[in-house]
Amino acid sequence: MVKLTRIYTRGGDKGKTSLGDGARVSKHSLRVEAYGDVDEVNAVIGLVRLDLQEPSDVMLSRIQNDLFDLGADLCTPHQDAPKYPPLRVTQDQVDRLEQEIDALNAELSPLNSFILPGGSRAAAYLHLARTVCRRAERRITALADSDAVNPVAIVYINRLSDFLFVLGRYLNNKGEQDVLWVPGANR
Question: Which CATH superfamily groups domain 27-76+87-176?
Answer without folding.
Answer: Cobalamin adenosyltransferase-like (1.20.1200.10)
